[in-house]
Write a structure and sequence with these properties.
By secondary structure, this protein is of the alpha/beta class. It has two domains: 126 residues, Alpha-Beta Complex (Conserved hypothetical protein from pyrococcus furiosus pfu- 392566-001, ParB domain); 173 residues, no CATH class. The chain has 13 helices and eight strands. The strands form two sheets. Strands 1-2-8-4-7-3 form a six-stranded mixed sheet. α6 crosses α7 and α7 packs across α9. The radius of gyration is 23 Å and the shape is elongated.
């Protein structure tokens, strides 16, 4: 035991047991798919070859967390029930490497007990925030859960994306991948949330919309976008249902808000009238494919802005 309040244990556990009792995200229903989404398979295989296959030990411990508040002990050994479930806060690649080796590794583990889901998310963010292996959609989902006081625009953006994904009157009802694990869902939270955060941050400086006013505006706006090509909505190959196009459209919405200085004036009819000015050829498959990265989104936005405004 490393400390008693809150309880933190240091122990050694076999890799096969850990794979059966851990998840890379408390919010992911399928731990195996969760690991596959978060880790780089080539890196895990390399760790298996260079460490596990050679019978070597890892120089540092993996970090685990659980909502279990205490563990029983027997003759100085902690007892882990077969129903145990731990979040892998750090060390996902080292643990997933066990899948690619016939030699079972013995993993030093630091176990944080008595953690709520929010506290697990905070610990995860603290350790992994700047790590490229964490999908941006998962990070935004954790931001919504943790709600860091230092970045209210980010919290609002994450909440708004969640509203878009869960409200029945939203064009994106159950059509946004909130955690980055749904390969069959083309629209990711990690694409929309940064643009919505910028919109919220800019609009808050000139207006004071309520959260519901923001949510209603986004639903009206994306409903208007859907009206431009109803049959293509939900199809990643259609004109307006591409992540880069949607990101550029959110920037255009910001311009409309700043121009009217009123969210109420941006009715469904008004928004649709503005959006109909966009030439669909501007968003052809070839042009959108060529619009890579932030610079590409900026080019798409500039083209649409010149037509609409």
């Amino acid at each position: 035991m490393l400390q008693t309040a809150p309880l933190v244990y240091l122990t050694v556990l076999p890799g096969s047991w850990l794979l059966k009792h851990t998840t890379p995200s408390w919010r992911m229903k399928d731990p195996q798919k969760g690991f596959q989404r978060i880790v780089r398979q080539d890196r895990a295989r390399q760790i298996a070859r260079t460490v596990l296959d050679r019978g070597r030990t890892f120089p540092n411990a993996i970090t685990l967390a659980t909502n279990v508040r205490s563990l029983s002990s027997d003759d100085g050994q902690i007892v882990l029930p077969d129903s145990s479930k731990f979040l892998v806060v750090d060390g996902q690649h080292r643990l997933w490497a066990q899948n690619f080796s016939t030699k079972e590794g013995q993993y030093a583990c630091i176990m944080h007990l008595g953690k709520t889901e929010k506290e697990m998310a905070e610990l995860f963010l603290e350790i992994n925030d700047n790590q490229r292996r964490v999908p941006s959609s998962l990070r935004w989902d954790l931001v919504r859960l943790v709600r860091p006081a230092s970045d209210q625009s980010a919290v609002t953006a994450a909440e708004l994306v969640y509203e878009l994904a869960t409200r029945t009157d939203s064009p994106f009802y159950f059509a946004i991948d909130l955690t980055g694990e749904q390969k069959d869902v083309s629209i990711k939270q990690g694409s929309l949330a940064p643009e919505i955060k910028t919109l919220v941050g800019r609009v808050n400086k000139v207006l004071e919309p309520t959260f519901e006013e923001y949510a209603a505006l986004l639903i009206r706006f994306f409903s208007a976008v859907r009206s431009l090509n109803p049959s293509g909505w939900g199809d990643p190959s259609s004109t307006y249902y591409k992540a880069r196009v949607l990101r550029a459209l959110i920037r255009l919405l910001l311009d409309l808000v700043l121009k009217t200085r009123s969210l109420e004036k941006l009715s469904s009819t008004y928004l649709l009238g503005k959006l109909k000015k966009i030439d669909p050829d501007t968003l052809s498959e070839e042009r959108v494919r060529a619009a890579q990265g932030s610079a590409g989104v900026t080019d798409l936005y500039a083209e649409m802005k010149s037509q609409v405004l």
